[in-house]
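My hope is that you will study the record closing this message with an eye to the fold:
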Amino acid sequence: MAGIALVSVYDKSGLSILSSAFAKHEVSIIGSGGTAEAIRKLGHQVTDVSDYTGYSEMPGGLVKTLHPKIHAGILGDWNDPSQRKYLETNSIRPFDFVVVNLYPFQEVVKQDPENHQKAVDNIDIGGVALIRAAAKGALLNQRVVPVTNPFQYDGLIRELDRYGKIGPEMRLSLAKEAFGITARYDLAISEYFSRNTK
């Protein structure tokens, strides 16, 4: 299916088989920072987010994917004439897959609950925004496939190999899971600071 995937993952397990599947199905990859580096080391082609957006990552990796060329590529509707004009004028490409998993906030605060700075450092911002945008895009334009966990890779690859694309049932299922992930993530952050700060 030729297409484009945005890949930005903390947990890089399974990245080799996913990258190979994308290469097989002619899905090009745009990757953030360490993810792009990992994909390149696996021998696959990848474009750095910073090269695509024209903005380098903020020091400390605080801002990587929060950019109109990223989010408009997830949410934009190429069938809407006014949106298409905006997207083409700004050289925005349509994303077909958004593969994101989050900083391990829950695990970090469980291991070291008194370390508030470490907790704050592990609050994911861009990843949550990407997951929410991809889940909305899946429902809004029936195009984007949100992938939020390495355990989902095998099913995704089977569907790609069998049909050459991701069908509406899997897209909807993945969107539901994506909204659940962001809800639980935000709840964990809220509960942690409610318990551990005055």
